[in-house]
What we know:
The complex is a heterodimer of chains A (196) and B (239). Chain A has helices at residues 2-6, 8-11, 14-30, 34-50, 54-80, 82-104, 108-118, 129-159, 166-190. Chain A has 196 residues and is mainly α. Chain A is globular and about 55 Å long. The mean pLDDT of chain A is 86. The longest helix of chain B is centred in the middle third of the chain and has 14 residues, at 116-129. In chain B, strand 1 and strand 2 form a beta hairpin. In chain B, helix 4 crosses helix 5 (116-129), helix 4 (101-109) runs parallel beside helix 6 and helix 6 (145-158) packs parallel to helix 7. Chain B has helices spanning 43-49, 78-84, 92-95, 101-109, 116-129, 145-158, 175-186, 199-203, 228-238, and strands at residues 2-13, 16-28, 32-36, 58-63, 85-88, 163-167, 191-195, 207-212, 215-219. The interface between A and B is medium-sized, with 25 and 30 residues.
Amino acid sequence: MTRGLLRPLHLLPPGIKLMGLLAFGIATMVIPGWIPAIVALSIAAALALLSGLGMPRTLRIVLGFALVGAPLFVFQLWRDGVFTAIEIVADLLALILAASAVTASTTASELLETLSRAARPLRHFGVSPERVALACSLAIRSIPLARTVAQETLEAARARGLERSPRAFAAPYAVRMIAHAQDTGAALHARGLGDD
Amino acid sequence: MIEFIEASVTASGIDGERTIIHPLTLRLREPRIALIGGNGSGKSTIARLCNGLVLPAQGRVLVSPPGSDLTLEPARDGAAVRRHVGFVFTNPAAQLVMPTALEDVALSLRRKIRDRGERDAAARAVLDRFGIADLAERSVHALSGGQQQLLALASVLAADPAILIADEPTTLLDLRNSRMISEVLCSLPQQLIVATHDLDLAARCDRVLVIDGGRVIRDSSSPGAGGQREVIEWYREQA
């Protein structure tokens, strides 16, 4: 109960959140002007804090965006002036924060269930909704893994003094990721996922 | 029980057909069976034959889950075999497919329990049985190797198979974690067939088979073999 009181976003059905995110994105892009952009950014920031992301993680997202946002701001400032620069950067950041709020307040399995429900009409065209959902979850699961494998491959290249050779990284990285995909395929097969 | 009848496995490569498993006839009915042998000896392939991950080129494999009078053939009844025969891989990172521990166990229960609330509760109960209930919400990526392997085991056993096959389940683990996983494996009610380099684990099994060059070259249950300890001792001397 306390969790619901503290994090109202967690209680919303994921379908509503995804539709809301879509509507928010369209509104942000369609409505012109720097004032609506600031309003959108404020709403998104409030949502992010409400979603249980918390101050430190929200700030980290903002800082990560700043790497792209700051140069973009400078470029727009030089090209179209300060108001356009504010509008574009605030819009983008608002979208990122709103999307983060949705992912932070929705577990992967909730998202999957929604996806598989949304994909249900596609059954008539031979698409299995369960498989669509499983493919998406595998993609989510593979992100941290791809990073670890990249790190290990880079270290292996470095250990042999080949850190400047793109080939010493790219070739073994591709091979290892494919090998991993094959292992994952065997594991899925063994667990009977995809049998139904 | 798993029965091999003249089952062989071949692979085709640039230099033509290569035999990986020579025609093998074998009845695996003991509660715990260890397959030991060097790298590339064929023990993983034999393990994979048991649940249809590898199909025999010639001959047959028959699976009779304990406690039922079914006789299944992986080549024909793939899905049913996979329901009755669980498989644990060497690298747990490859077989954990969902983002969090609870979700991975829940995935195995998807077919059995349709309601999400009930399914999550059942998944939590499974985690609790393996003493990892506190990891439920953690990212599978953030778990240690031992925790990952324990979770992989929990996810496979959540589907309640009658037979468990494990392919070098302790090879990537440190001593403490490999002992912990061995302990769990040996305490299961399921029939266990484990391919392993871990001779301590092999010694706790009821039957030990030594595989080399795609053949069973020693079998602790054959007359005159002298039992598991002698077979393991013999293998140790060979190595």
